Structure formats: C-alpha cells, structure tokens
Amino acid sequence: MVLFKRLLVCALVSSCVVVSGCVTEEINDATGKPIPHTDSKVDMKSALADYITLANGYMRDGRRDAALRAIKKGLAIDSDSAELHNVLAYYYVTDGEDVLAEKEYKEALSDDSSYTATYLNYGVFLYRHNRIDEACEKFAKATEDVMYAKRDAAFLNYGTCLKKQGKMKEAEEAFRRSYINNARNASVILEMAELKFETGEFDQCSQLYEKFLMESGQNAQSLWLGIRLAHVMKQEDKVSSYALLLKNHFAMSPQYSEYKAWAKGK
Predict the structure, then answer these.
(1) Angle CA(22)–CA(28)–CA(32) in degrees, nearest 5?
(2) Among residues 10, 95, 102, which one has the least CA distance to residue 54?
(3) What CATH architecture applies to the domain 1-113?
(4) Are 246 and 227 in contact (CB under 8 A)?
(5) Domain boundaries, the chain
(6) pLDDT value at residue 41
C-alpha cells in the first residue's frame, strides 16, 4: 500500500524555432504553456514546480527515463527540494536500488522535515523491509499533519503497522481515524474486519466483511479472510467458493500460498 501525490499528467515536448538556431522549449501540458526560463527567482520557482509535476506524472505513468530527466533538471534548480528527493527515492525503489532509495528518503527529510509525503512513503519502504518499529514511527509522524490530503492513507498504514506490532486497540483507533477521514475507502473496512477476526470477534468481523463486499470487489486479501471466516462460521460452501476464486484469480499472491499451507494443515 503505498502512497505519492497524484498530480496532473504532463508531457515534455521539444520544438525548434528556426530563426537564429534551434530553441528547445519544455511544455507543461496541464497549462499548455512553456516552462519558464530560469533567469529570475520567480521563474526558477515556477520551473521547479513544473519539474516536480512532470517527475510525479512520469513516475505514475511508468515513464522512468523521462521522470529521471525531470528530476535532474529540477535538482539543478534546487538541490534541496524535498519533493524531488522523495520522487527520486521512489525511482530507486522501482529500480531495486534500496540503499540509494533510503539515502534519498533521508535527504528529503533533512531538506524539509515537514514534508508529510516523505514520512508516508519512507514508512511504506521500511514496512516492506520488515523494519516495523521504524515504519510505525514514520506513519505516526504522517498522521500528525491535519492538512495532509492523504491523511486517511496515513492512518490506514499506521493501523496496519500497529496491528503487526500486536497493538490491536491502538490499531483499531487508527483504522477508525482513517475511516473518519475517508468513509469510502473500502481498504480500511477490510483491515478492521481482519483485526476483528484476529481478536476473535467473529460476528463483528462478519458484519464488516459484508460491508466491505458492498463497497468493493474481492481481492486476494479479502478472499483469504473470507475463507478463514467462513471456516469459523462453518460455511464450508463459501470456503470452497472463495478458495476457487483465490486460486483462479490470485494464484501468485502471498495469500494463496498461505491458503495452501492452511488447507494442507487442516
């Protein structure tokens, strides 16, 4: 579950004007205007913002080469841009360069310790490397920003991390806060259902699970929970049905591996 600012997609366009030579302009497709020349502080600030937008957009679209060019040009304007170091960290993550990625996350926080997106993204990075305590610290910091547009995601990740630590009451409160921030996020309902299953509150788990199904389609995580819940509730037809769906649609998922080990040990 991971989590960058979603910005408008922009494209980099080169055009040559035949007068006294070839002049290259970079166009921001969101505005249709050229990225300004950096001959003043105002222009430099505007150009930096455009490169940040371009870098985010290109990374979202999987155009890593174009994203790297935009990142480099932006850093040439401001080498202390936390936003660009944050994007560069994600660039390295997608390239499997974890050491470089962590270096960039740290650099981003050093440049601007108030840039909330870095805490969230760095937390995801740490969680995936099973550095749970460190990840929880970063997620907790991300939840402190009351103006953060993705605060629901911050609380959701924080709750998942707390659950991993075995802090079920704290996790439930984090999930509740996530739901308050975005009641349409079905993922938090599923996480709450899983928490109730793990604490043995099966009736509440079932209610939340049904609510999730009303809001969203099935995924590997929900099917695996559905299998275990149906087994507890002695609904073996559902166990078989959910297991077949998990096998047919998510055979490569960790949840299917868990299911096979569980089924073998029954």
Answers:
(1) 90
(2) 10
(3) Alpha Horseshoe (1.25)
(4) yes
(5) 1-113
(6) 61
